[in-house]
# Entry
Amino acid sequence: MVRTTSLWLLVGLFGYCLLPWFMVEDGFWSFSWIQNFGTGETAPALFQALFQRRISLTPAGIALAASAISLMLFSMPAVRARALITISGIGLLLMVFQGFAPTSFGAVLQPAVVPAQAGFGVGSAVTMIALLFVLTTAVSSLGKGGDAFVVGLIGLIIALVGIFVFFPVGHILIRAFELPDGSYALSGFFARFFSSDIWSLKCVIGAGSCGPAVNSVLLAVMTGAGTTLLGLAFALIFTRTEFRAKRLLRVLTVIPIITPPFVIGLALILMFGRAGAVTEIFADLLGMEKTRWIYGFWGIYLAQMLSFTPIAFLVLIGVVEGISPSMEEASQTLHADRWQTFRRVSLPLMRPGLANAFLLGFIESLADFGNPLVLGGNFNVLSTEIYFAIVGAVADPAKAAILAMALLCLTLCAFVIQRRWIGKRSYTTVTGKADSGQHSALSPAVRTACYATALPWAAFTAIVYGMILFGSFVKLWGYDNSFTLDHYLRAFSIDLSNGIRWTGVAWDSYFTTLTISTIAAPLTALVGLATAYLLVRQNFAGKNAFEFGTMLSFAIPGTVIGVSYIMAFNVPPIELTGTSIILIIVFVFRNMPVGVRGGIAAMSQLDKSFDEASITLGANSFTTVRRVIAPLLGPAMLAALTYSFVRAITSVSAVIFLVSAKHNMATSFIVGRVENGEFGLAIAYSTVLIITMLSAILLLQLLIGQRRLRRQNRLQKSVSSKPRILTLQPAGRNK
# Structure
């Protein structure tokens, strides 16, 4: 405890005495602050407190010094820990107060000499992190919550979720209680929240259309069930059958998740719209009337099934792989046939994965913005209603906040139902005991059902993406289908006449998107899997609230997240608007729940005896996670990295308000081209992004590899090789 605390105190002193306390205009990595070290806004807190009379910056330094003195002064561990908890806690509170109330302390005492305060910089961030870990290390030394690693991880994630989820979301949700005169009251909130405009059930009795909340629930339930069913069918084909084209099928299962926004909706319109290719064929051959059925519930449902089935598949394939063959063998030993084994043994052990896959599909459907915007027609859902309340002709932030709270309530209900369905049963299947490694084969009926469900869907996916690829090589898709390369040349042309010059209009946003996504993906996976480890492996107060808090950013539409980030981080103390950091942060905490749910599903199958054996042998929690648990989470890590990387590239609703001239994202560029009617350029850019993401996914698969949970089946290897004659030798002979 003393060594760890001393290390963090040194880190805090480094941030307080040597790093710029406030934001640097040119950015920290420009290192321009070194040239003006100790002067102006770029000075460390120590220099500003001593030479610029900013007394408000002294509490952090006093907290660090007092913590160091307590560490040396008190010899009794309990007394020393309580002193450190008190001092570091007060220091953190004063730093927060100083950030939100910059006129306190020094400004009150000497208002004439204290300048206006900028946002927190690197020095303040390092100092706050150091004080936080001093606090958590002291708490762990009292025997509460686990060792220093576990308690520190809990404290860090709570702080990050509080700052980058609850703090910005609170800025917009509080607007739900705002009255037209600018005051706040509960009276108007309940009347607007329970309004029939939101919860109407007229469609049930045939008297009109339902409210957006009811439409959203119906669509989310159908999408969650459909994506889970398809994801399970694909996962069973990959793990329990000898299907020969598994690699091609893997590409078709993942490719929808790497599609930029509006492309699927646009492809469906050009296929099934009133003048679509498929509609024309059916009208000519069968004389069917041309309709606009693609606009509305069924069009959105079809697009969401295409978009979100990969999420269910990525969650379920690791769960299906993790079922121990020994349990299935035991069932068959007791004379159960393959169908009974699947129904009574395998399927119940998949329950955590099925529940998490359904929850993710349900929440994704609720929060989806692009598909309802393109294909919604007169079918209103909460996400689009929130968007139009924010950017409509008459902006109504209070209405948007009320709709967002309705969406949150639906998410909370789904979360509670999922927890009750899973219950407190044990789903452990990976125990460390050796087995044959050969899963039980599927019964003919289940195998046929999987093929009949998954293969037609894969063929339909191939047709949709074939049409998208076709659209990038024609002048004007649907009107002038003559071949051209103009769209690619305009977007990605290179001039080699005088060195390499990236002259295409898309290069700037392409490089920016790749850079930000590459940084955000591992951070997202790390935070998500660390959170899953705490939820599955640790017990602490407020665990259920902590779990729901991690899902909050995923449940709220990206439009609301983007607006809330502008409201929260456009002014001090955390001033991030217009920087690349805000884009990385929004991607990390927007996509983190996928890593959390996938990690929970995978870790629920790992026996806790792994942890116990490691700790018994003298390892701490950090070593156990690094050496024992992490190697067994290959599918979960792959799912988290893959999803976070591609969503950082394809996300539009969360970043459309956050991009700037200096940091433009690919999705914002595509939306601009669609608005200008340049569909060929948008589709060509989307095709390049799809190829880029497919290459990245294949590279991730090669780097992470395949999880080996058990011995390889030597029988399969010997059957495929040349038969050998085995002879018995007398004892003592080595032949």
